[in-house]
Amino acid sequence: MVGSKSYRTRTQKKKNKGKRWAKGQSSSSNPETTKYRDKVGNQFFNTPSGGNLTVGALQLHNDIYQESIKDDDDKALDFDGDTVTSLGRTQISKWTTCSLSAFSRFLNRFQISSALHKQMLAILEAISELVKSNGGRESETEYFLALMTTLEAVTTTDEQAACMSLLNILIKRVPVNILKIKFGAFSKTFIDLLDQHYKSENGVLIKHLISCNAFLLQVQELAEWQNSSTEELYKLILQFISHPKPRVRRASQRAVCFILKTAPVTHAGKSLKVHPASKLTAKFCIQELESYTPQTANLVLHILNLLREVLGYFTHDLLKKTCETILRLMTLGNVLITSCSLQVFHNLFATHANSENISSTLTQQLINALYNYVPSPNDSQPMIAWIKAMETANLHLMKLDGDLGRKLLPRLFQEGAKIWLSECPQVQKSVTQMFKGVLYEIVQPITTAPTVSPADVLFIQELFCSIETCLKFQYHAVWNQVLLVLAVFFEVAGSIENTFMRKCLQSLTSLRESHHFSYTNELNYAVGMAVRTMGPEAVVTAIPLEFKPSERVEVGFPHSWLIPVIRNNVNNTKLIFFAQYFLPLANACQSYAKQLESEGKKVEGSTYNLLYKQIWSLLPGFCTDPVDIVENFKNLAKILGDQLRQQNELRLEILSALRLLIKRNLENDGNKAELKRFAKNYVPILFNLYTIEPEGNKENYERLAVLETLKVYLQITPLETILLLFNEALGKMEDETCSPFKRHSILDLLHIMIQYVDIDHIKKAYGICSTYTQHLDRTVVKKTYRLLEELCSQKTKACEIFVSQNLTNLKNLLFSLESGAPATKAVKMRTLTNIVKFFPNQNTVFAQLIPKVILCVKEPSQKAKIASVALLSEMIRSYMSSKEKSEQEVLGECIEVMMAGLAVSPTMINATIISIGIVLQNFEEYVSDSLLQRIMKKINMLFLSEEKNVVSASVEFLKMLIPVVREDSLASHVETIVGNLMNISNEIRATVYRKTKEVFAKLIKKFGYSMILKYVPENHRKMLVNINKIIERRKRKQASKSVSEPDNEDEIVIAKEQTIEDLLKDSDSSEDEDGNEERNKKAASQSKQAWIYENTDQSIVNFLDPSSSRNIQATRPAEFSRPTRNKNAGFEISSDGRLIITDPENEKETKQPLKTDTDENITKPGTSKRKLDDLSDAEDYQQANKYQAGGTGIHRPIKQAEIKKPGVDFKAKKAGGDIKKKGQPDPYAYIPLDRTLLNRRKKAKGGKQYKKLLRAANKGARKGAQQHFRSKKKKPF
Questions:
Q1: Tell me, what's the pLDDT at 1140?
Q2: Per the record, where are the segments of Polar residues compositional bias (predicted)?
Q3: Three-state DSSP class for residue 51
Q4: Which segments of 770-886 does DSSP mark as H helices, in order?
Q5: Kind plus residue range of the DSSP H or E element containing 1091
Q6: Which of 101, 847, 892, 1264 is the most buried (most CB within 10 A)?
Q7: CATH of segment(s) 359-569
Q8: Low-confidence ranges of the chain (pLDDT < 70)
Q9: 3-state secondary structure of 1140
């Protein structure tokens, strides 16, 4: 049609997703459709079948890997380490018939993945067959010689390494004579291999060659060492000291140490003091050290590492020459070499202290030389090494020559005081540790000697003054360290008569009372140590407690801080000093306190009253091991008695003092007699105090202290005094007008006195107290039975006679467990436990008492339960001792009597089952198989009961039974036990579910998971799997805890000293030297960096001076640069150059703005998950603050929705919290509904937002409540 538009149309094909994977089939190992798998399979000609891969071979493979294939239910099954080892050894024995014990460790730890192990196993099997075919005895010698022959025959490096590994195992077991005879042949073979493989990559081969050579050389006599071939072999070992492979290098160092530590024997049978190889070693080391260049620094470090172990085995001349070489090496300025050299000296004096080659003269020379090589105090690594070396050197010199050591030691203290000014805390603590070590090792033996000469005192004073000078303000940064050293000084030298320490105490007092002193605890500790050793009299003489009455205690009592220090440290002193010095001071404080209170100044008065009590609190310390009890206790006794009666607030201190005096002098007859003399005065006072009714809880505590003091004082009180008070107490018990409280108190006093009186007084007390067993006052009844318990439990002759004469009365009184107050059951059973063995007819007693005791097992009171268990066990022991049958038969009779309770009420059945379990636990060694069979038969029947208590008790019985019965005895009952647990009805199962899991856990631990799994039905196996997982998890936790147990640390923690191995970790960190070379170069360059410290006020550094080493530091010094100014005047600038000025109203919110470059900090290890979760939200809020460039296309500016925090519209600008605005609803925050939250991946975000809202609401509510509470407090009444 003309003028009309034509349209092309086509029918759109219906969209089809095509064939899709069925749900769950995408990752299936056996899918329904296998079209492509079939095509791949058709491309092969034939599928191999009938191969050698059998079930047995596969099982062997899995056993070697220690990963046996298990069913899904057996995945949690675990084996002990011993089981795995024996299994591996059994499987390896299929491949070798060698039975030599020397190879047992290799065979037990065989690894199929190791090519070396497989090669060793093949050679070992071949050697074993060869030895057996020749009719050998399979000795170590035969195997060793055969291996040497094989070593000469094999050609490949792997075979040679395997042979050498086997030879290294055997060479230590071969007779020494064979190694001496065959030394030439063996050494030639080893030398040829070493020359051949010097540059080989097989470190194992070279390592074992060196080890075998070392043992071969070590057993040779002196004559052999005089041959040049022997020296050449030893020099060859020395060449490997600098080998590039760490494994070879360490093997060579160990070989040299092994040889030098065992000197050869001469023909006359005498052992040399120094090994002849030490000369070769010294020449080699000196030569290498003298050829030092910056390129050979690592080689020098390896030589120093060797010298650290062997330097002490050199002769005197070689030792001196080597030390001189090392000292010259320290002048070159290499910090690592300096540190390692100092470690060599430290190890020389620490591990070779008894060596005769290190003379006192040489030690003195080394000490004086090392003072010229003091590193920089701020360079921690060499400085700590220097401190350690000097400490051990001076200690060694003191052992060799005490007079010479005393001359040099003051210089060490002076130098250490200078080093304390270091800015490095590790160096400061190292100096402190050095001082403490020297004081304990050198000064303490001098002061503890029987006599201390004036020269000794002057020597100690010189050392002390070096430390005392550090109390100047110049050392204020290390005053805590100085005070710790002074405390040690007071500890080790405070016992000697001196005046210089008292002057130091005065300096410490001035320091303590200075303004803003920061180390109060350390100073108190130092002064307290002075109190312990010098005594309180010397300390108070130096720091007098001057009492000058004033309204301000700091003015009237300036040194009152000393009282708590003395209280915590005083002991082993004189009582007379307390009576003559502190008592008048306390009385003055009390008088002045009363004066202030009468004037209406209650606050000041209470302060001085507190000082009065603090002074009296010193009394227990003065009564701790006093030295003048016989002479001066009489001067203090009357005062203490009067204060006990009159001053309630001092009663606890005085009682504590009396207990200390008696307890610590029970074995001192003189002091004991003096204290015993005053018992007639103190014991009646204590009796009266205990019978006075208290007015509050505080006096209750005082009564307990009085009773405890009476128990202690009665140990030394004369019998006449005790009988007098005992009769008086019995008379008051018969008095009908006696108040209940006083009757209770008298029963307590009779309870503690009953063990000291005779049989007549015991009968009298029993006659009076037996009438109170039916008293209406329950407390009286309970205390009466406790008195009987004390009477029956004592081992005195009078008590035993009374019990044997009154068994019938006691039986009638105590067998009534079912009647009487419940609180008395525990006391009755404890009393019966003490006397049940004295009853003549044990059959009757057991039959009458056992049902009552069984019922008490289920008593609510924990004390009654414990007492019933103890009584039950004691009854069975007494029953066994009364019978002539075996223990197994007697136990069976007892169980038969007890099982009569299984036919009574459910409560009795429950208690009987628990009681039988307790008996089996306590007498597990006497449980026979027949008895176990009878018990299990009864228990199986009880599992069919419909009573919850019965079934619960049966399950509880299994918990007690399984751990104590042997596996072979219980194995036949496992299937029955599991069946009973599985057949519990559903109504009862819920109540015993937890106990059932515990029983299964015990069964798994005893018999293994696989055995128990066989008897569990399929529908219950999930529970068993979970139980096994919990058990395995606990095992792993316990194993990890046992591995990572922390060591005890000293009070002052010193940084770990870096050893030479740590300094060489760039080359020793891995056995593979083919790592990242660039990284190693960078690390090496960083480790070699050093800084030269120059003082602008002095001349330039003279490197020819040995002391210049202290100006070369490995630690980068602090950069004293000018503080950088903020060129933006404190404002932030956007990327386009505009200033960003924040609103003051939101200043709090913008104090910590979110930065765009914090991802690195957020994702560091240790960042909490909450921070990671909040990262995405922070980025959302951050987008609005980013600058965006304009443009077109994809760079065009787009509108972004404004992101607001929930509830921000209601926030008040000035007040805290939210406010309601006019025309708007109440403040609220909500999460809008969003269909995207239905997505499983985004569901967590909504939950997180909801939690944030709740957290913010709670925070705001708390803040508002606090403000409301503050506003209420400010309102006037």
A1: 61
A2: 24-33
A3: coil
A4: 778-793, 797-805, 807-814, 825-835, 842-856, 862-882
A5: strand 1091-1092
A6: 892
A7: 1.25.10
A8: 1-33, 35-97, 99, 265-271, 353-354, 549-557, 696-699, 1042-1208, 1213-1217, 1230, 1265-1277
A9: strand
